[in-house]
Amino acid sequence: MAATTDAPKSFADLQRLLADDIKVKVAGVDVDGVLRGKFMSKEKFLSAASSDGFGFCSVIFGWDIHDSVYSRELLISNKANGYRDILASIDLSTYRRIPWENNVPFFLVSFLDPDTHEPLTVDPRGIMKITTERAAAVNRQCFAGVEYEYFNFQETPESLVQKKFTDLQPLTPGMHGYSLLRTQLNNDYFHDLFDESAKFGVAIEGHHTETGPGVFETALAYTSALRMADNGILFKYLAKSIGMKRGVIPSFMAKPWGNLPGCSGHIHVSLRDTSDRNIFAVSDAELANGRTDAAFEDTKFMSSEGESFLAGVLEGIADVMPLLVPTINGYKRLVGGEAFWAPNAITYGYDSRAASIRILSPPSVPPSATRLEVRIPGADMNPYYALSAVFLLGLRGIEKKLKLQTPPISHFSPEDRKSGKVKMLPISLESATTRMMRPDSIARESGMLGDVFVDHFGGTREHEVKLWNEAVTNWEVERYIELA
């Protein structure tokens, strides 16, 4: 079984790896984090791999998660340009085989502008590559981890429709975080997720039940940022595929139940230099007592560059919220407070799960593991966008040598909020999109995401808001149909 460590080093290697195959599966990623792909004959695939790639319909950037064309014309893919082909460039380093599909070979593609052959900025893998190249330009490497929480239901795609997506049956009853007992129920499915991931080249660090009926949490092993984003998308694909075989629907929706905790998609980030040293870590000389020039006690076991990275994230996080929380439903998860640990303010703190940015540094972890955990995203995030946004903000902070302006805070009162001592995050996709798209948004800066990305992706979020504003929900009918 091949994983990405066995990726072909040459075209001859590729031919050898595929010698006994007749078809290959390829896929790219759309703005909602959905894999879009197809089977290709081995001959067609090898022809594309030996050239610049193959044509792929750009409509995948011109329609939404349910294949409805966006409400207004967008820059990359639209009626005016006839939804022309873009160039799908095969990334041979992503080679693996799909163990639950007769070991068919699988590759991810990145989408390029057909005229310039440059990465397409709205392509999730494209913006992630642009981000890592900007880091490399200043001799930095981006590393990351992703944790997913997700509800699991004893349902099928057919039963979801038959039940009209209501009264769904959780995989297990009750609230059983870290339970060893609950994993005995549906034991084969629980173990398949871990075991098949290993075969698929998606390394898992931890896998357990989380609090909530039928909830699991899976932490993917820390690795380079692009590989991490790939693994995040591919884990969802794997979980849904394995679930179908077992009569289970895993849901990465951020808030499927109003009265229960939502599903997080926490991301961990750090930078390394060209010698593979974690540049967020303090020096050996500072390890005993921390930095004497640290901005605050909570950051004394982080480097000054790590502080500037954190300051950059804090300064710009509200301007990139749609990349962290891209759905209408995602904002319903951000209720704040310790009950659900879903922060909704611009806060940070040492080893604090109540803060939006959790600092992990000595003494709780070794210096080499010093990192930031961004706790804002839900499981419905697109990991390429979320990671790119955080790294671009952090690199901007380092470039500008930003200093932390506010002290660490995890708990705050309504008075702190009213006085402006604590700044809040946008509370809806509509307000978040408006903020991201305003002319002076940090997201629009040339060293950040830029106008092309913001206008196109922002347009997709405006479409999502439009559909929500036009929808009549069950809550409205139940509340008003008789008594209004």
UniProtKB/TrEMBL annotation:
It comes from the Eukaryota. Belongs to the glutamine synthetase family. PANTHER family: GAMMA-GLUTAMYLPUTRESCINE SYNTHETASE (PTHR43785), TYPE-1 GLUTAMINE SYNTHETASE 2 (PTHR43785:SF12). GO terms for biological process: biogenic amine metabolic process; glutamine biosynthetic process. One of its GO terms (molecular function) is glutamine synthetase activity. InterPro entries: Gln_synt_N_sf, Gln_synth/guanido_kin_cat_dom, Gln_synth_cat_dom. Signal peptide: none annotated. Residues 124-484 form the GS catalytic domain. Pfam families: Gln-synt_C (PF00120). The lineage of its organism: Eukaryota, Fungi, Dikarya, Basidiomycota, Agaricomycotina. Keywords: ATP-binding, Ligase, Nucleotide-binding. This is Glutamine synthetase.
